[in-house]
Amino acid sequence: MSVDRRTFLKGAAVASVAAVAPAGIVAGSAARSTPAWHRTACTFCGVGCSLLVAVQDGRAVAAKGDTDSPVNRGLGCVKGYHAIQTLYGRDRITRPLVRRNGVLVETDLDTAWDAIAARLRETVARHGADAAGLYGSGQWSVVDAYIAAKLFKAGIGTNNIDTSVRLRHAAAATALASTYGLDGAPGCHEDIEHADVFVLWSHNMAETDPVLFSRLLERRRTHAGVRIIDVGTRTTRTSYAADRSLQYAPLAEIPLANAICHELVRRRAHNASFVARHVAFARATASAGDDDISGETSHPVDWAEYVRFLEQWSPDRVAALTGVAAEDIRWLASLYGDRTRRVLTTWDSELNRHHRGAWANNVLHNIHLLTGKVSSPGNGAFCCTGQPNGADSLHAAGASPDGLPGGSAHAAVDRGRAARVWGVAEERISTRRGRTATGLFRGIIDGSIRFLWVQAANPLVNLAGADRYQAALRSQDIFLVVTDAYPTATTAMADVVLPAALWLEREGVYGSSERRSQYVPRLVQAPGSARPDGWHTIEVARRAGYGELFPWNEAMYVTEAWREMERFESGLPGMAQLRAGSGILSPANGAEGTSWRFNPAHDAAADRRRGDFDFYGNADHRARIWLRPHEPPPESPDARFPLWLSTGAVLEHAGTGTLTRRIPVLQRAAPHAWVELNESDARDLGVRNGERVRVSTRRGAIDVQARIDHRTQPPVGQIFVPAFDEAVPIQRLMPDVVCPLSGQPASGKCAARVERIV
Ligand code: SF4
To answer: Which of 52, 397, 557, 742 could form a disulfide with 358 if both were Cys (CB 3.0 to 4.6 A apart)?
Structure first.
C-alpha cells in the first residue's frame, strides 16, 4: 500500500534487469563533444511517454524521462530507458536483400525498389488490384500508415491494407464505434488522477503499462480510500499490488459484466436519469461472418427489454459460469453503483483476444453507461492499446480494410472527399471489402493474394496457424516483401527485404492510447541504406506508376503528408503545434486538445444545449447499451487437452521481441519464454521448476522451460506462456478464430496439455 510510483518502477526494473544503467548517465569518453538533449516519445507501447534523448557525435547515447511530460512526468520503464540500444544491435539489416536461387543476397536500393515495383505492376495487371496487400504495424509512424493507405487506396485501387493493431486493439475500437460512434476512447490518462476505484479487468498493468500503473499507485498513496481491484484469470504482479483480487474463468467476461448490470438494476443503483437522457439500447439481429468486419444489423430495444435480458444473468447463476462468488459479484456491483465514488475500468489486449472480443468490450462500456460513469474526470472504461497508434491514429491515416483517412471506404461522402484531396477519380477508390490481418494471410493460402508487403511486423511468429502461411509461401508463387530493421522469421521468408530506419532515425508522429499525437524527430542518421517505411513505399510507388500521388522530396515528405492529412478534417493538430510540446489529445480543437470527449465542459464538438453529455458520434446523440449474450468458447479443456493456456506480454519485451531482444539488459533479464504452472498442477504432472516440458495444443507443440508459481501464478488448471520469444512461437499454436465483428484474432486462450520430455 505504501508503494509510490517511483519505487514501483525502480522495483520493476531491479526485479527484471540485473544491471540497469541509471537513466540519464551518458556513456562515452570525456573527449567527445557535449551531448545535446532532445525531446521525443517512446514508441514501444501505447502509453506514449515523453523521453529526452542525448545525442553525441551522431549517436544516441542516453535517455531519460521528460519531467515536462503530462504522461510520465520524468519517469519511464525499462524498455523506454534502454530504447536507444535498439538502434545498435549487431545484426541490424543495413542493406536491401533480394532472393536469388533461394538465397537472400545483398543488393542496392534501386535494384530492390525496381524489383518490388515490377512485381507489383505485374500482379495488378495479371490478377487485379485485390491480389495485392499490405500488412503494416502499430509501430509505424502515422505518416507511414497514411502513405501506405494512399498508395493502396488511391493508387492500386484496393482496400487490402491492415496492421498488427488488428491483433491487439480491433475489438476495442469496434466496440467504441458501436457504443459511441467513434473509435477513440472517451476518456484519457488523466482519469487516473481523479478516480477513487480502479477495476482492472484481465489487465496486468504493472507489466504491460508500467508507467500508467505507477500513476495508479501514486493516486492511491496520496488519497485515502482509493482502491485498486484486480479482476482477472490469474494472479499477476498487478494482483499483488491490488487491494483485492478476484479470479474468473477464462473467457467469462460477458456473463460477469452482465451480472454486475443485473445487480445494479436490481438494487436500483443505476443512474436512471443519465440512462433516460443519454442512452439507447440495441440488440444485434445478425453479424457478418469470418474475416468480414462490415458490421452487424441490429434493432433498437427499450429499457423493459433490457431488464428482461438481464434477468437471466443473476449473480447466483453467473457464479457457476464464471467461478466468481455471487457475493463478490454483488460487491463489485456495489462499487460501480456507489454514487460517491468515481470508477475507472481498464483492460488491454489480453481481454480483447476473445472469440467475441467486441462484445466483451461492449459489456464493460454497458456498466459505465448504466451508472453514468463515463467521460468525466475519474469515470470511464478505458482500453490500453498496447502498441502505439491503437486508438484513433490509424483511423486518421485510413490504414484499415474499411477505412479512408478520417472516414470509411463504404461511405460515398468519404470516398468523394478522398478523391478530391488525392486528385484521383472517385471510381478509383474501391468499395470492395478489404482483407483484415488474418484475411491477408489466408489469401496467400488460397492464392487470392499474390503480392504481400509486410512493414515493421513479424506476423509469421504471432499469427495463429502461421506454419500454414510459411508452407504456402514456400510452395506457391507469392511475392513477399518485408521491411524491417532486424532479421525475423518473416524476413527469412521474403523475396525482398528492405532495411528500415528506426525510431530516432526517422521523423514521424505517433498516437497513444489516450488519443495523444506526439512528434518524434529524426535525431540520428540511419545506418547504410536503411530508410523509413514511408519513404520505401514512395520509392516503390513511383517506380510502379503511382508517382503523381507523392510529389514530395525525402526531406519534406513527412510535413507534406501531414499537411495533406489535415485536409481530411479529422481534428489533427498542426505539425508546428506537435513539434512544440509533448503532444495533443485529438481532436485538437486549437491548442487545448480534448481530454474527455462528449462532455461539453471538455469537448468543443459537444453541444451544451444537449445537457451534460452529447454523444454526437451517433446520429441520435445517444450512447448504446448492447444486449450481448454469452457464447461458449470455440474450444475448452477436455480429456486430451485438460488445461487452459493463456498468452500475453511481460515487462521486458514488446511484441515478438524484434527490438527488445536487441537490448542486452532486457535480453539477459528475459532471454527465453517459459510456461508458468500452478504448483499443484506441476506436482500432479511430475514437473520440476526449470525443467523443459512440452506444451501442446490441437495445432502443434513447443518445448519450453517450466516455471512454477513464477512471476505470475495461474490457478489450478491453467498455464501461461509469454509471447515475446521467436524461438517459442506460442501464438502459432492458438486457434485460427477471429471475433466476427472486429476481425481480431481470438488468440488469447485455448486448451492445452503439458508433458514432461523424457
Ligand atoms: S511505459 Fe511504454 S511508452 Fe512508457 S517508457 Fe515504457 S514502453 Fe515506453
So the answer is: 742
The minimum-distance atom of ligand 1 relative to the CA of 209 is 1
Residue with CA at minimum distance from ligand 1 atom 5: 80
For ligand 1, atom 6, name the residue with the nearest CA: 77
Note whether 153 and 161 are within 8 A (CB): yes
Task: Take residue 90 and report the three cell numbers written for it.
Answer: 549487431
The Cα 146–Cα 744 span in angstroms is 21
Cell reading at 390: 491503437
How far apart, in whole angstroms, are the C-alpha atoms of residue 413 and residue 571? 17
Which ligand 1 atom is at minimum distance from the Cα of 512?
3
Cα–Cα nearest to 387, from 140, 637, 150, 745: 140
Mean pLDDT score, 252-263: 98
Atom of ligand 1 nearest to the CA of 210: 1
Q: Is the CB of 357 under 6 A from ligand 1?
A: no
The Cβ-side half-sphere exposure at 82, using a 13 Å CA radius, reads: 26
584 Cβ contact list (under 8 Å, min separation 6): 516, 517, 573, 577, 578, 591, 593
3-state helix, strand, coil in the chain (%, to 5): 35, 20, 45
C-alpha cell recorded at residue 554: 525525402
Element (H, E) at 190: none
Residues 74, 651: Cα–Cα separation, whole Å: 19
Q: Is the dihedral of CA 239, 242, 247, 251 positive or negative?
A: negative
What are the backbone angles phi and psi of residue 437, rounded to the nearest 5°?
-50, -50
Is the CB of residue 41 below 6 angstroms from any atom belonging to ligand 1? no
Distance from residue 76's CA to the centre of ligand 1 (Å): 6
Closest ligand 1 atom number to CA of residue 76: 5
Contact 629, 287 (CB under 8 A): no
Return the pLDDT at 109. Answer: 98
Environment class of 510 (CB within 10 Å of its CB; exposed 0-12, middle 13-18, buried 19+): buried
Vertex 134, ends 131 and 137: CA angle to 5°?
A: 160
Contact 655 CB / ligand 1 (< 6 Å): no
Backbone torsions φ then ψ of 737, nearest 5 degrees: -125, 140
Q: Which residues, 6 or more positions from 687, have their beta carbon under 8 angstroms from its beta carbon?
A: 677, 693, 706, 708, 754, 756
Q: What's the one-letter identity of residue 435?
A: R
Question: Percent of the chain beyond pLDDT 70?
Answer: 94
Tell me the pTM.
0.94
**Extended beta strands in 546-679, E state:** 584-585, 623-626, 643-648, 674-677
For a mutational test of ligand 1's pocket, the pick from 47, 192, 503, i.e. the residue with the most ligand atoms closer than 8 A to its C-beta, is: 47
731: pLDDT confidence band, cut at 50, 70 and 90? very high
